[in-house]
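pls design
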């Protein structure tokens, strides 16, 4: 990978390798940073031609799709101007500039009159998202402004994100999201009537621990009952990553046969 001059940002950045070194990402030194959630989200997504990464941050999940050859083109959508710019920079640094577009926009305005022209309604066959998951009514927001914006939103906003995904997807397109387990009822309610065949994959820190995340997949316009899939376990009794976690988080394997 050629050495590129680091662009200027109004905050300190670090240069970090993820996905077993397959991606080299610039990201804020403080605040919201790339983690397991984005890699798991991308690993759970089915292969697609055109994908949209909502709330993309620095582009981790969308770039992980491209690094895994699971998408041909990805549109990043991020409301924070600096993070949207970082996503574009990271795409260039990882030689994916021609396969990506970075759009600064509010998710709620996508595919609506007065909203940005891209991504357009019905233009994607996959939408992935990692919505803010801390309800300010239930959890104390972070004092860091960027982290607060990335992590904090009322639970009711989940429906707005899923509705945006529905507008962007073609018929039979897929939506994949990662969130906290306590929001599963709100997620399923938002999917009802527009998506079907929902699959829920619990993510556990250890085999005997409660889930800390859920991944939910569904298909636009499909009918069918919800399926609760086997849980994904991050670490064994020795606190080392399980073979499955190592394969997904570092080896770029798919989370399953989605």
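designed seq:
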């Amino acid at each position: 990978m050629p050495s590129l001059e680091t662009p200027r940002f109004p905050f300190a950045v670090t240069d970090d390798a993820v996905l077993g070194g397959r991606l080299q990402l610039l990201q804020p030194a403080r605040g919201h940073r790339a983690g397991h959630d984005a890699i798991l989200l991308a690993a759970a997504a089915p292969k697609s031609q055109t994908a949209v990464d909502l709330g993309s941050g620095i582009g981790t999940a969308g770039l992980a799709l491209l690094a895994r050859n699971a998408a041909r083109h990805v549109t990043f959508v991020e409301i924070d101007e600096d993070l949207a710019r970082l996503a574009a920079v990271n795409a260039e640094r990882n030689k994916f500039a021609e396969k990506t577009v970075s759009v600064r926009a509010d998710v709620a305005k996508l595919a609506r009159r007065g909203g940005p022209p891209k991504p357009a309604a019905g233009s994607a066959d996959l939408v992935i998202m990692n919505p803010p998951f801390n309800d300010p009514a239930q959890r104390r927001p972070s004092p860091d402004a960027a982290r607060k914006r990335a992590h904090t939103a009322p639970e009711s906003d989940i429906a707005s994100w899923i509705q945006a995904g529905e507008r962007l997807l073609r018929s039979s397109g897929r939506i994949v999201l990662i969130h906290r387990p306590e929001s599963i009822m709100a997620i399923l309610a938002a999917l009802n009537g527009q998506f079907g065949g929902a699959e829920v994959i619990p993510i556990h820190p250890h085999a005997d621990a409660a889930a800390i995340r859920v991944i939910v997949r569904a298909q636009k316009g499909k009918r069918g009952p919800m399926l609760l899939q086997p849980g994904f376990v991050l670490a064994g009794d020795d606190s080392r990553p399980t073979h499955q976690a190592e394969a997904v988080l570092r080896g770029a394997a798919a989370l399953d046969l989605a």
